[in-house]
Design goal:
There is one protein chain. The protein is an all-alpha fold and about 300 residues long. It has a single domain, classed as Na+/H+ antiporter like fold (Up-down Bundle). Helices cover about 80% and strands about 0% of the residues. It is built from 13 helices and no strands. Helix 1 runs antiparallel to helix 13, helix 4 runs parallel beside helix 10 and helix 5 crosses helix 11. It is globular and about 55 Å long. The two termini are about 15 Å apart.
Length: about 300
């Protein structure tokens, strides 16, 4: 089964990254550099190739995905507000719990997974949905994580102009203009893009090695957050989209997108803004580990319902 093969590859790469971090071949500084190369170079190459090579019949899907993404984030943000208050989380921690529910590890895990399961179409769909993620992460996400902190958060529009967004915009212009890129350009970009998935998994594994796994599994609220983030919400999204647009790749990829574990950025931002980094790191580590079981389960539900 493709999902088993895919998850074994992902688990192996993550385990390698975990091991290399433990024996100090990959240091925190080195992993930070690797992550920047992946996010700023390799993934943009993968996204560009996937979008530019997409069949022109997919153009109408862009508008649908933009609207679906807006609706999904409006609902999930509202649910995160309600769920966290139902859990009676301490006021100082509410923003981190909410961010852990809203923002998934789309770049490092979602894109490689979509590529393995659905090919270029999967990457194309994820890239469109990921625009919402980037816009919200550097605005609403940082605002919620830093809520109540003595540090005043100042919006920085430059953060929105990251290489992934810039490349995606360029790729969309090329795609909608119907321009044909020469092989001398596409082949090197494709070659670099293929390295994105394995290196991102190694980086995620190295990141997990830096967290306290004991602390990750001692917080009962994180189990509830993980249940909603990894299974309840994505399954609900799948069935709702199935009723609205039917069973198809768009429905499947969107459900997988929503079911990604908490983004590493939640942990990084909590450190940067002097919030409770241990709580954020625990959420990231727990969900990354649990997703090894929940992603195959979610995929099987999507394929067999």
């Amino acid at each position: 089964m493709i999902i088993i093969t895919t998850m074994v590859k992902i688990l192996f790469a993550m385990a390698l990254g975990f091991f290399l971090r433990k024996i100090k071949i990959i240091t925190p500084e080195a992993n930070s550099t690797i992550s920047r190369v992946i996010v700023d170079v390799l993934f943009p190459c993968l996204i560009f190739v996937s979008i530019v090579q997409m069949d022109s019949s997919r153009r109408g899907d862009v508008i649908s995905l933009v609207l679906i993404g807006i609706a999904i984030y409006v609902v999930i943000i509202g649910l995160s507000f309600l769920i966290v208050r139902m859990l009676r989380a301490p006021k100082k921690d509410r923003g981190i719990y909410e961010a852990a529910l809203v923002f998934g590890n789309v770049t490092a895990l979602g894109i490689p997974l979509a590529e393995s399961l659905y090919g270029d179409v999967g990457v194309f769909f994820i890239a469109i949905l990921n625009v919402h993620f980037n816009l919200l992460l550097y605005t609403y996400g940082v605002y919620r994580i830093t809520k109540g902190n003595s540090n005043t958060y100042k919006f920085n529009a430059k953060k929105l102009l990251n290489p992934g967004i810039v490349v995606m915009v360029i790729a969309m212009i090329v795609y909608f203009a119907g321009l044909k890129m020469p092989n001398i350009v596409m082949e090197p970009l494709s070659f670099l893009g293929q390295a994105a998935s394995p290196f991102s998994m190694i980086s995620v594994g190295a990141s997990i090695a830096g967290y306290s796994l004991k602390n990750s599994f001692n917080n009962w609220r994180l189990y509830v957050i993980a249940a909603f983030k990894l299974l309840i919400i994505p399954i609900a999204v799948f069935f709702i989209l199935k009723l609205i647009i039917g069973t198809g790749l768009m429905t499947s990829v969107t459900a997988i997108y929503v079911g990604m574990p908490t983004a590493v950025a939640v942990g990084m931002f909590s450190v940067a803004y002097n919030e409770d980094s241990s709580l954020a790191s625990a959420a990231v580590a727990m969900q990354a580990i649990l997703s090894m079981g929940t992603v195959p389960l979610l995929y099987m539900i999507i394929q067999n319902v």
